[in-house]
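help with this.
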Amino acid sequence: LRMKPDGSNRDTLGSFGIHQSYWDGRKQHWLRYGRRALRALDGNDLLYGDGRAFEVQRFDSTGRLTQIIRRAYAQQPVTREDRIAAVTMRVASASGEHAPARRPARSIDQRIAEGQWAEHKPPYSAMIVDTLGNIWVEEYRFAAPDLMPNNPPPAQWSVFTRGGKWLGNVETPGLFFIRAIYDDIILAIWRDDDGLASVRGYRLIKSGSSRSPDSEPS
């Protein structure tokens, strides 16, 4: 939906999927490592990806599909190590501290057996549009920054121009969760090993058509 300043409905772009789930006979559950849709705004355009492939679709303000951005991607299988990581993830509280998720005293194997699992991980886990209109898509790490494994791996971001040209990849630290990207700086929440959160900025160094963050935060 697009809303007017007074809160009334201006128009409707359409219906879009949110995440892949399953029915256990009583209620709906999220499928572990199932597809999760990403969406971001670029002016009046909606950028949307449903996780079936490394693909982002652009819809204009009338709901018309105007662009498809793709890149090659090899599906990654969900391994036993992935399943162990999922059932042992820490939960980040609003204060930024981390604690084990509340659960009965069950073994890891029991908790794995109780879940439903996708065969392959989604291609991506986050999408941000910077102030220049470039589209940053994070290759899949884990479902959400408030559910994170110990020692999360670095993030790999594919960067595309508004026209869909791939500029290259940018790697950011595993504990650095991006919130906004400007012309020459990335702002993010940094969570230390104890889960305490702080705001950090990394300078972007541009070389030709590629971008990479400086090694030192500012």
Observations:
- The chain has a mean pLDDT of 84.
- Helices lie at 80-87, 108-114.
- Residues 80-87 form the longest helix (8 residues).
